[in-house]
């Protein structure tokens, strides 16, 4: 297993999974293995704004607040 993503503790994906609004697979497959394929990670690194309800694969989930 790789390192935890440097954005993990401030990422809304952690918040949504902690609250049970998202399946833990998102954290397991992206956040906890420092997966640089994460669209959120890429956008954060480039300074590109992105919505909190955007998943690591780039999908926007309107049901997440």
What coarse outline follows from CA principal-axis ratios?
globular
Question: How many structural domains can be distinguished in the coordinates?
Answer: 1
> Uncertain runs with pLDDT below 50, 5 residues or more?
none
Q: Give the integer mean of the pLDDT values.
A: 94
Question: What about the largest sheet?
Answer: none
What would you report as the Rg, rounded to the nearest angstrom? Answer: 11 Å
Tell me the total number of β-strands. Answer: 0
Q: What is the number of helical segments per DSSP (H or I, 4+ residues)?
A: 3
Strand content: under 5%
User: Fraction of residues in helices?
Assistant: 25-40%
What labels describe this entry?
mainly alpha; 65 residues; globular; single chain; 31% helix
Question: Please, could you describe this protein's structure?
Answer:
With 65 residues, the chain is mainly alpha-helical. The protein has one domain (1-65). The protein contains three helices and no strands. It has helices at 12-18, 25-29, 39-46. The longest helix is centred in the middle third of the chain and has 8 residues, at 39-46. It is globular, with a radius of gyration of 11 Å. The termini are far apart. The mean pLDDT is 94.
